[in-house]
Amino acid sequence: MRYAIVIEKGESNYAAYVPDLLGCVATGETVEETEREIRAAIDLHLRGMREDGLPIPQPSVQVEYIDLAA
To answer: What confidence category does residue 70 fall into, taking pLDDT thresholds of 50, 70 and 90?
Structure first.
C-alpha cells in the first residue's frame, strides 16, 4: 500500500501525519528523520490494527501541487 504523508515544519522540529490513518503521527529534528519515524509509526499502527482485528483503511488521500504566479 502507498499512503500519503504530510510533513510540517514546527518551531524546533518537523511533524508528520497520515491522513488515512487517524492518530498515526511522528516527529523528528530533520525531514529525513521524520520520514524514518513516520514509516515506523505506520508499520506499528497497521500491526496494531491487525492485532485488534480492525480493517486496514485503503489509501484514499490524493496529493497534488498547484503552481501559482507570485
So the answer is: confident
User: What total number of domains does the chain contain?
Assistant: 1
Q: What is the CATH number of the domain that holds 29?
A: 3.30.160.250
Domain that residue 38 falls in? 1-70
Q: Which residue has the cell 501541487?
A: 65
C-alpha cell of residue 10: 514546527
pTM, to two decimals: 0.89
CA distance 61 to 37: 20
- Cross-sheet strand order for the sheet of 6-9: 6-9, 14-17, 25-28
